[in-house]
Design goal:
This protein is mostly beta strands. 0% of the residues lie in helices and 48% in strands. Strands 2, 4, 5, 6, 9, 10 and 11 form a seven-stranded mixed beta sheet that branches.
Amino acid sequence: QVQLVESGGGSVQPGVSLRLSCAASGRSFSDYAMGWFRQAPGKAREFVGSIDWMGGTIYNGLFAPGRFTISRDNAKNTVYLQMNSHVLEDTAVYYCASAKATWATPRSGDYDYWGQGTQVTVSS
């Protein structure tokens, strides 16, 4: 079983930045793409970003252009989500996911393991 543990969430004011981390274990981390999703109250799960097995190809969600950046450190078995210039609409539970293949993808069905999520609350 692959284990994914998110960290770095919390309560922040608008404009403040956060970096979320996701530590993975259970299989060869460097062989699989990773992704970030989020779900706000009353809304469907949204794609945030994904990164291929080596970090060479990165996709960002259209809902947050230019503000979120995904990266990975295979030596640490960790994927990151840098979140800058927060707005109130960023409030959500953020989930880390491990894909079934090496290619970055926005499709939730392409991910077979999910973390428990970390809450990010943006308020003034």
